[in-house]
Design brief:
Order of helices and strands: HHHHHHHHHHHHHHHHHHHHHHHHH
Number of helices: 25
Helix content: 55-70%
Length: 439
């Protein structure tokens, strides 16, 4: 279902990049060759990519491939390509400029002249100034601060540019009074702007804003990423409870605990509310979920059956369906049987390991406390069977809520390996459960 296209052989990719555009089979061949060379890190690959950047030609396919080549060279940490990459800061293509600036930041470019070129580009409204600001921030070019601050004087500044500017100012000056500016961006109507606001909070290293981040109506992926990026692992002794509050809130993801926006008093049918599960704006889906959880299983079952055929093709809708199955608790035996079978199917190998609906699916299955719960727990806590750390953490949260009081399973033995889990959040949680209940 999710198979990747076959890799080009290294020799084939190198041969394609050496050809003139007139000798290509497809105009996309340059791009395909460049992207595949990421899988073959070596000097020969770097030389080929650098030489490709020097290739003349202004066709759109060549320009797009050069954007990718710059990105790949940065991923390969090819610092010797900095002179060739910096050449594209003068490009007429804003995307080439953007990729060049981000690549130079990733390569930790320390050349003052190159850094100043990026800083000067902030005055050009045609450029993607958000990325330019981020690059200057990543390179810690504090002398660019006056130009970044001047951007804030402009009217109708895009939220993404505004947020990046505030983030950079915070990073350079440590002015916590500006946190409220980033916090306000978490509640703007546009979902992309809310997501970039989380990125800006991460870049500003504003850990104090994590409680606001976890209440933001966006995909749980972005909220978990913020915790992962900002939480000071190794310095959390005595702060485990705060960490667990953050993680548990995202894992459970109760819509009543989120800062939802654009509420409406308009009464809507169950069909229309369920249809909002397909909306790409998670805020709308959370608003629908918040309303739907107040209905009984009996009221919900018929309209649910009308959308089930479509839901299998929409990963976001699947996520909210699992949440609905979790928060509504009065399903009858036949409904519970269907829910368990449907949810179990989501954990098949046909689905990628890191789908957003996997952690809540595991949580829901364990909440049913079936006869094979012990086998499920062992499988869900095993990093080979369950590579996504949030899934393993979700299983531990289910243990806390559903299994410790019953005292029917050997929880101490089940979580033993998790105490040394490769993911720090999982191991911290497992050790906390052990300390609280078995020491």
């Amino acid at each position: 279902m999710f198979s990747k296209p076959p890799l080009l052989a290294k020799e084939t990719a190198l041969d394609i990049l050496s050809r003139p555009i007139s000798k290509l089979n497809l105009l996309s061949d340059y791009y395909k060759a460049v992207a595949n060379l990421l899988e073959y890190p070596c000097c020969e690959t770097e030389d080929a990519l650098i030489n490709f950047l020097k290739k003349k030609g202004k066709s759109q396919s060549t320009i797009i491939a050069k954007r990718k080549a710059i990105e790949v060279l940065a991923q390969l940490n090819c610092t010797r390509s900095i002179p060739e990459i910096s050449f594209f800061l003068n490009s007429e293509d804003p995307y080439l400029v953007e990729n060049a600036s981000l690549a130079l930041a990733k390569l930790s470019c320390e050349d003052d002249q190159i850094q100043d070129m990026i800083s000067n580009l902030l005055e050009d409204k045609k450029q993607h100034r958000r990325s330019l600001i981020q690059s200057l921030s990543f390179m810690r070019v504090s002398r660019s601060l006056p130009k970044i601050k001047r951007l804030l004087d402009q009217k109708s500044l895009q939220n993404g540019v505004y947020g990046a500017a505030i983030s950079a100012i915070i990073k350079f000056t440590h002015e916590k009074k500006l946190y409220k500016e980033l916090d306000s961006l978490l509640l703007v109507p546009n979902q992309n702007d809310r997501q970039t606001a989380v990125e800006d909070i991460i870049n500003a290293e504003a850990i104090d804003l994590l409680p606001s981040v976890i209440k933001t109506p966006i995909s749980p992926f972005f909220r978990l990423r913020a915790i992962k990026k900002l939480w000071p692992i190794g310095e959390d002794k005595g702060n485990e409870v705060k960490l667990f509050h953050l993680l548990d809130s995202v894992i459970v993801d109760n819509p009543t605990q989120l800062r939802l926006i654009n509420r409406s008093d308009k009464i809507r049918s169950l069909d229309l509310l369920l249809n909002d599960f397909f909306n790409t704006d998670f805020n709308k889906a959370y608003l629908a979920l918040e309303t739907l959880v107040n209905f009984s299983a009996r009221d919900l079952w018929e309209p649910l059956n009308r959308v089930l055929g479509r839901i299998n093709r929409d990963y976001g809708a699947i996520y909210f369906l699992i949440k609905l199955f979790t928060f509504v608790t009065d399903w009858n035996d036949n409904q519970r049987k269907f829910i368990l079978e449907f949810t179990s199917s989501l954990l098949d190998s046909d689905w990628p390991d890191y789908m957003k609906f996997r952690p809540p699916s595991i949580f829901l299955i364990l909440s049913y406390r079936t006869l094979n719960s012990e086998a499920n727990l062992l499988r869900f806590l095993d990093s080979e069977n369950t590579p996504y750390w949030a899934c393993r953490y979700s299983a531990l949260r289910a243990i806390e809520l559903y299994f410790l009081k019953e005292n029917k399973l050997n929880i101490k033995g089940i979580i033993e390996d998790s105490r040394n889990d490769q993911n720090p959040f999982v191991s911290i949680k497992a050790n906390y459960i052990h300390m609280k209940n078995f020491e």
